[in-house]
Amino acid sequence: MKRTSLLSKANARWLIPGLSIKRWLLMMTVGMALISLGIGYVLVEFYREASVPPIFYYLTLQFVPRVLRALFFGGAGISLLVIGFFKFNASLIRSMRADNQPVVDKLWQQRIASRGPRIVAIGGGHGMAALLKGIKHKTANITAIVTVADDGGSSGRLRRDFGLLPPGDFRMCISALADDESLVSQLFQYRFGKTASGENGLTGHSFGNLFIAAMKELTGSFERAILESSKVVAGTGRIVPSTLSDVTLCAEFRPVGDRVNAAGQLIVAPLPVHTRGESSIRDIGLPIERVWLEPNQIAAFPEATRAILNADLVVMGPGSLFTSVMPNVLVEGIADALRETPAKCVYVCNVATERGETDGFTVAEHVAALERHIGPNIVDYVIVNNRVDTGFEPPKGVTIVLPAEFVPGSTVKVVMANVVDDETPWRHDPAKLANAVIKLLS
Which residue among 33, 55, 288, 422 is least crowded, i.e. fewest CB within 10 A of its CB? Predict the structure, then answer.
């Protein structure tokens, strides 16, 4: 019974309006009916004029009333036609695809999801990937705006050696939006390790980063490389940089105030500390006062601003607040588009704090830091995890972000939802997060 119900549910998706299937099936049925009518005329004429053996009396069931004969032959013909059609298509499509996704699901993704809401996601890193993994099942109209400020690891090496915009966050987005997520994710995220002789030129690089670097050389531009890489993996939506400029993320830290040590001596707080480079910000260990881009007068990527202005919903985060979300919205054109767009703007607060970046932050402090950089009255909603007692211990130095009351007069609406991953409850669950985001459009 369970198997039958599952099969019925899957087959019922063929009845969804807009798949552009039923109209052609109807046309084929009408065509077959006309062919059958023509053949019938010929057979009737042949039967009347020609002399046929007596066996035909039994083969054509002439001893049965005509109505029953029509129902029998008609039903048999329709059954054979339907079975043949589905078996033919199953055999044909099975040879054309490598995954096991049902054809109706692919058609739904191409036809129905393409008419879904226009959603823009702004950020980078694992947080952005989690959002995209979930939201791609709700709509195909996705534009991911990704930071280009990364300067560490494999991305940093490619950036320095080849003058390439850092591909790491783009690689993660391509993997998250890929059609065959399980296989492509493993391939794009594969990182070369040490060989028997030790480190080499590939050590530390991920395959996806090298793939994008090679594609950039072939296509001649970084944005074209991202587009073509997405096509290779049959990815949903678009992935664009916030800017094509070579930028450096800088930070100023708030020094610890004057204090008295155990011996009663006054320790004067140091002057504000500054650092350059996204990868060095978390190592300072002081509260972050502000971040900015150098150079600060840079042009936003036109496709990014256009997507924001035409969006139904703009989602900032989840992800590292100061090193993934901020580098995008600090681009002047992006911030201007956020102020002008008619779309609802949502900030997805992280489930847990990040060492060296948002230590001890409440939800209100996350939003306050964002508004301190891009201005007030931009964020309409903030999605906050309401499952704080998970029973799991987060990694050392990480705490679950606790909700806190916003200051009186705040226009930000708080949306509470269970969005945590059951296995790693200091991260977001893609499906739960996508459901919470889509509900805001209701």
Answer: 55
The Cα 40–Cα 397 span in angstroms is: 81
Residue with tokens 């508004």: 371
The amino acid that residue 200 corresponds to is N
Q: Among residues 142, 340, 353, which one has the least CA distance to residue 238? A: 142
pLDDT in tens, 130-175: 999 999 988 989 999 999 999 888 888 898 888 899 999 999 999 8
Q: Are residues 320 and 358 in the same domain?
A: yes
Residue spans of alpha helices (H) in 113-269 = 125-135, 153-162, 168-177, 181-189, 207-219, 222-232
Q: 15 pLDDT band (50/70/90 cuts)?
A: low
Q: Is residue 284 part of a domain?
A: yes
Query: Quick one: tokens of 353?
Result: 């704090």
Residues 343 and 440: their CA atoms lie apart, in Å, by 11
Establish if 159 belongs to a structural domain: no
> Per the domain annotation, does 312 fall within a domain?
yes
User: Do residues 117 and 141 lie in contact, with contact meaning Cβ atoms separated by under 8 Å?
Assistant: yes
Residue 253 pairs in a beta bridge with: 273, 288
What does the pLDDT average to over 229-251?
A: 89
Q: Is the dihedral of CA 333, 339, 343, 346 positive or negative?
A: positive
pLDDT at 5: 45
Torsional class of 302: left (φ above 0), alpha (ψ -120 to 50), beta (otherwise): alpha
For residues 300 and 324, give the distance between their C-alpha atoms in angstroms, rounded to a whole number: 16
Q: Given a cut of 80, is residue 294 above it in pLDDT?
A: yes
pTM above 0.90, yes or no: no
Rounded to an integer, what distance in angstroms lies between the CA atom of residue 375 and that of residue 369? Answer: 10
